[in-house]
Amino acid sequence: MQRHCEQYFPVPDELTPADRIALRMARLLVQGHCVASPFLTRARFTLNGQDSPTLRSLLSGEPHAVRGSIAAFALTLAGRHLELGPVNFYHPHVTVDEEDGWRALAALEAGRGAGCEVTVRPVGGECFRHLLRDAAPGSGWTPVRLELPGVTEPR
After folding, report:
1. What helix, strand, coil percent values describe the chain, rounded to 5?
2. How many CA within 13 A on the CB side of residue 41?
3. In whole angstroms, what is the distance from residue 129 CA to residue 123 CA?
4. Could you say which of 13, 65, 80, 81 has the lowest number of CB atoms within 10 Å?
5. How far apart, in whole angstroms, are the C-alpha atoms of residue 136 and residue 23?
């Protein structure tokens, strides 16, 4: 991971649970695996004003798949900011926060949907899945386990 980020530093003997998770996630992402991230449990989108039955269905509360990207995905490890590169994120079943959904639907009805922000969350308390864009094209969206002793696997 240090080689990938071009930052070399001694890793502390003791890592916080969050640092352990970040380090494992980074290693798995760099190796081309899909990882469920406990650090991304919601995503906020800005509507562009285009309307569609699928968008209205999502805004009305029906679960939908959502995919997005983060241009410069980074993790913090032992106080160091490590940029891994562009990451795609995905979840097969998200719902929009109810208040955001109603507000966005009203804005679309009034022809003012552009710029409206909505928050989506994976159903059942799950997490978004990440895949480093250039690491392994076509490796799929099934996340691998972190397999860290004492850490609950993100869903």
Report:
1. 25, 30, 45
2. 7
3. 13
4. 13
5. 19
Two tokens at 135? 């690491």
Beta strands (DSSP E) in the chain are 35-36, 43-46, 64-77, 80-96, 117-122, 129-132
- Contact (CB, 8 A) for 23 and 31: no
CA atoms of 62 and 95, how far apart (whole Å): 6
> Exposed/middle/buried for 115, CB within 10 Å: 0-12, 13-18, 19+?
exposed
Q: What percent of the chain has pLDDT over 70?
A: 95
**What are 113-127's pLDDT values in tens digits?**
999 999 999 999 999
Sequence-distant (6+) residues with CB within 8 A of 14 are none
Side chain identity at 136, as an amino acid letter? A
Amino acid identity, position 25: M
